[in-house]
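Input record (one chain):
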Amino acid sequence: MGKCPNSVHRFATKCLENLKNQACHIKKVVKRQITQENLNNRLRIKASIDIVCWLTFQACAFRGHYERPKSKNQGNFLEMMELLASYNEQVGALV
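The corresponding structure, as predicted from the sequence alone:
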């Protein structure tokens, strides 16, 4: 019993090994993903708030006339976000 690679015994043994491996437990995996997603969201919000504060302090308009992805000037907010993304690789991954 269990000599065949697709046998029921091997499958049950593999399930037991997976159950014992708590690092791969679904709760821990989901918690790790949620924690990373929360950090990414906080970074995105912080960058956006910093840009809004700077544009407000400088009394600049937020958007441009033509904000399509191929335009040369997409507006102050989007251009500033690209500038921050060029300096910080974590912000760049979010843009």
